[in-house]
Amino acid sequence: MSNQQTTRDNRERFTYKDDDAIEKPFNWAQLSRLFSYMKPYKKQLLPVLIVMMVLGTVTRLAIPAIIILAIDEAIQPKDGGAPSLSKLYMYAGLMLALYIIQWAANTFRIRFTNIIGQRVIYDLRQDLFRHIQRLSFRFFDKRPAGSVLVRVTNDVNALQDLFTNGVVNLLMDCVQLVGIVIILLVWNFKLGAAVMITVPLMFIVSTALRRRIRFAWQDVRMKQSRINAHLNESIQGMRVTQAYTQEKANLAFFNHINSVNIKAWNKASALNQAFGPIIEVTSAIGTLILFWYGSHLIQSEAITVGVLVGFANYVGNFWDPINRLGQMYAQLLIAMASSERIFEFIDEQPTVAELPEARQLPAIRGDVKFDRLLFEYEKGRPALKGITLDVKAGQTIALVGHTGSGKSTIMNLLCRFYDPNEGAVLIDGIDIRNVSIESLRSQVGIVLQDTFIFSGTIRENIRFGRLDATNDEIVKAATAVDAHDFIMSLPDGYDTEVQERGNILSMGQRQLLSFARALLADPRVLILDEATASIDTETELKIQEALKTLLAGRTSFIVAHRLSTIRNADRIVVLDHGVIVEQGTHDELMRHGGTYNGLIEAQYRFLSA
Ligand SMILES: Nc1ncnc2c1ncn2[C@@H]1O[C@H](COP(=O)(O)OP(=O)(O)OP(=O)(O)O)[C@@H](O)[C@H]1O
Q1: Residue nearest to atom 18 of ligand 1 (CA)
Q2: CA-to-CA distance for 153 and 125, rounded, in angstroms?
């Protein structure tokens, strides 16, 4: 294979779906929704802001006026009198005072808006996380974890500048601009209008550029989002990458997306910088007009030198906010794009919704009935095709069948991670769609094959089953499933810190922890997805014993892989392509000589091969 070929393959190694480009620059409804997050702080924010903004703006606008007075009354008095040093000192003192007030007002405003801005960001992130936690499995099925992560981190961060100083600066710049325009026009209408004649010109020239800047930043955001999604996936899949020694190939792909990102960034920032010269040229033209036309007016004694100097000062101040507004425009666009992505998540409704009139599921006995369940994850591909099963409280049911036959799906419906397309799941005769999700899941426990261990101590990981459990109860639960000894052999016993996904624990140990967790939760109905990984015989025995303790007195459904578990079940339900094909005890099914018999014989053949 040629080198070139390899590079091309690497570029196409992973595919990430780009977000759609946003055509409209502004969506006012969305902007107002974004600003509604500032509402709770309105009362706190407004009075302080108004005072600080007025102080900042008035002092800034007053300084050139004092310069005019200093020239026209102290340095070269209009009435032809002698220059006055004492007056000059007075004006200088006044200017110094104004500068100090301006500095104090601005410093206070910036600190204050930073604090409020951070609170708004906090609220937004909190809102987003609260909502994401409510979303159903279907939502997560469709998206890589990385893309969800990026919205809670990067997209919310992108709003930071806007909320901390952006909005206030925008307001101040607008007020300052309007103030300068009014002052210039009132002071000398002709000169004012002449100086500002270049403004519409600048807007026309920059229109095309603004559009290009907008698309360029959008492109940068997409490229960054791709990097984030890939990074997340790479870190999560690091073991597989290293096991298959794919580091070099992955690096080549990363290099590709990384350099594409840099190119996009360079392009956008070059376009952004082109905005500066446009403003500089227009401001230079404005200044030329000012001095050319202003000196005419001085000659005809229509204005004084002081007025010309004051005008020059105001005109200088006039272009600063325009320049900042240009930059602010890019910031606003980024904020718009990010808020659209954030609101898309916030507007996503959980597909498994709680009825408004949902009642609490009373303490249950544990009778479970699946009534003619039909279910499909994707339209046209049914995963369950009419499942009916009646289970009495306290029974243990083993679900067996080929991979993809629908075992986990039945369990997903019992926990209400999804709702069936047709049919119903009843617990003690109550349709689980009519009760609150919390009251259901607090009585239906699930132990997954891939035990999830969170960062924290072993104790806290077990306590996950019931947050108000005492330390004694935790030890009791761990002892009951025979996890106590191994926990005590860890460096800090129950206080040993385990990292995300429990990397320091073995598979068997993780399973025992998850049993302890479930035992602590003490649900009436227990679902257990048995691990397929083979473990040593001693641990296997331990797990079987622990299982007995865990299952005692509960209605249990086990997606079973071990013959020992299957044999101990009250009933074995055999699934095939979303249909129950057989059910009965081990002996009955073996005698029957059907699918189950085939599965068991295949397992024996495999074990003795
Ligand atoms: N989140 C999902 N989105 C779309 N299809 C899915 C999803 N989960 C499962 N399926 C499909 O539904 C069918 C049943 O899957 P299910 O996970 O219930 O099988 P299973 O019997 O538990 O398999 P295994 O023993 O391999 O865990 C399969 O065809 C599978 O491809």
Answers
A1: 406
A2: 8
Same domain, 503 and 567: no
Mean of pLDDT values over 260-283: 85
Asked if 149 contacts 232 with a C-beta cutoff of 8 angstroms, the reply is yes
What is the CATH classification number for the domain harbouring 412? 3.40.50.300
Does residue 65 lie within any of the structural domains? Answer: yes
Domain boundary among 320, 347, 374: 347
Query: What is the DSSP secondary-structure string of 134-150?
Result: H--HHHHHHS-HHHHHH
Matching residue, tokens 């998850």: 514
| Angstrom distances, CA of residue 567 to CA of 372, 400, 552 | 27, 12, 16
Q: Which atom of ligand 1 is nearest to the CA of 409?
A: 18
Q: Can you give the pTM of this predicted structure?
A: 0.71
pLDDT score for 100: 92
- What total of structural domains would you count in the chain? 3
510 & 529 share domain: no
Which of 405, 412, 580 gets mutated to test ligand 1 (max ligand atoms within 8 A of its CB)?
A: 405
Q: Which of 528, 575, 263, 159 is nearest to 400 (CA)?
A: 575
| Pocket mutation for ligand 1, best pick of 377, 410, 418 (most atoms within 8 Å of C-beta) | 377
Q: Is 573 touching ligand 1 by the criterion CB < 6 Å?
A: no
Query: Is the CB of 377 within 6 Å of ligand 1?
Result: yes
The pLDDT, as a whole number, for residue 47 is: 86
| 489/592 same-domain check | no
> Distance, CA 598 to ligand 1 centroid (Å)?
21
Mutate to test the pocket of ligand 1, among 408, 413, 450 (most ligand atoms within 8 A of CB): 408
Any domain includes 318: yes
ipTM: 0.95
Comparing 140-149, 363-372, 477-486, the range with the smallest average pLDDT is: 140-149
Query: In this structure, are 393 and 335 located in the same domain?
Result: no
User: How far is Cα 251 from Cα 256, in angstroms, rounded to an integer?
Assistant: 8
Residue-range definition of the domain harbouring residue 376: 366-443+524-533+549-609
Among protein residues, the one with the nearest Cα to ligand 1's atom 16 is 406
Residue 136 CB–ligand 1 contact under 6 Å: no
